Amino acid sequence: xxxxxxxxxxxxxxxxxxxxxxxxxxxxxxxxxxxxxxxxxxxxxxxxxxxxxxxxxxxxxxxxxxxxxxxxxxxxxxxxxxxxxxxxxxxxxxxxxxxxxxxxxxxxxxxxxxxxxxxxxxxxxxxxxxxxxxxxxxxxxxxxxxxxxxxxxxxxxxxxxxxxxxxxxxxxxxxxxxxxxxxxxxxxxxxxxxxxxxxxxxxxxxxxxxxxxxxxxxxxxxxxxxxxxxxxxxxxxxxxxxxxxxxxxxxxxxxxxxxxxxxxxxxxxxxxxxxxxxxxxxx
Length: 283
Hints:
- By secondary structure, this protein is α/β, with parallel strands linked by helices.
- It contains eight helices and eleven strands.
- The strands form two sheets. Strands 6-5-4-7-8-11-10 form a seven-stranded mixed beta sheet, with helices on both faces. Strands 1-2-3-9 form a four-stranded antiparallel beta sheet, with no helix packed on it.
- α6 (187-197) links the parallel β7 (172-178) and β8 (198-209).
């Protein structure tokens, strides 16, 4: 159980003070895109969450972010007892992502960031039987992934932790991040860490929600309902592409994935996938 939240300048203690500028570009041209109650925890075993979530959007770079942002204690509340996703679409999504890497030589080593219980490595082994898959995750589920044989090495913590990123420097041919960046306090720092553990010429595979996809338009004022409560950032593809290129990466593909059977499979929403190659030193 996480520690009791401490006061951080907001009423509920689960949120940091509200910020007046964009965390991506620094602009102060913000507008509120979404204000909604906790849709995830409501009615879940009688638990109630920290309350209303607010998502602001930058008028200059279109970056959307939770404002005020959940504290570490608030994030721990939502991670507590969070089960591994078992939605029937997830295995197909994982297999599709793995197939997207078949155009490249089979990697010797692959790190899955935010791996949970290793659902993606388990699916990817079908296509890469000779690849050594490792995983990093902030929860104890990463140990379950290793015990089940889905990964070979398990690292508990954030990839940005110095003990982890320094120990894994330039070790991997592929680093994957599936619906991970949007949950992190600083997506840019996560990207830099991912590039540090990649070998020169290695590939970064990213999948994140698309804040401007058709599904968000359909939902109107509930756009996008998947923005909360654990999603701290929602990044337009152009922003991630520009960031990766600034770190000497070559963008191989940027693919938007539209939802299927919208109402029945709402959890998919819209996502986009980026494959980038590390072409030089990390800046």
